[in-house]
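Quick one: structure tokens for this chain, please?
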Amino acid sequence: MIWPFNKIKQLHNTENNYTNEFSFLEIVKPDIIAEFIMNEHPQTIAVILSHLKSDLAAGILKNIPEDLSSEIIIRISRIQDISPLVITKVATNLENRLKIALELKTEIGGINTAQKIVKLLRIDNDITILKKIAQVDLAKKTSHKPSPFRAESSGGQF
């Protein structure tokens, strides 16, 4: 008996406890994912989004410019079979870059923490200290720093 390819694929995935290579993206906000993958090749983005739940993929596409999102949708509709090795390579590379980028964005403290500490100190010049903190915070926000989301591509063209 010759088995249909889809049936063989289904059995293979069941036997190997198949998990989605891109499941790590399920805990990241769609706008952050969109900013992170926006500079990828549209085919790479299409592969990534085709592995996600539809609501997450749609949330990501809402945060991508319309001309690019249209191109991605077209490519999703045309995706055929892709080597599992390519999927693994793209997923691993993306996950590693995302971890690094999110670690760079981890902040400890901040103005809210400083404000709470100063109020608990009950010192006379707490208003002066908080104004200085606000000035430093404002200057920090207006300075231009390169975004960690402009890293190199996670994979090549497919």
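Residues 5-142 form a domain with the Annexin V; domain 1 fold (CATH 1.10.220.30).
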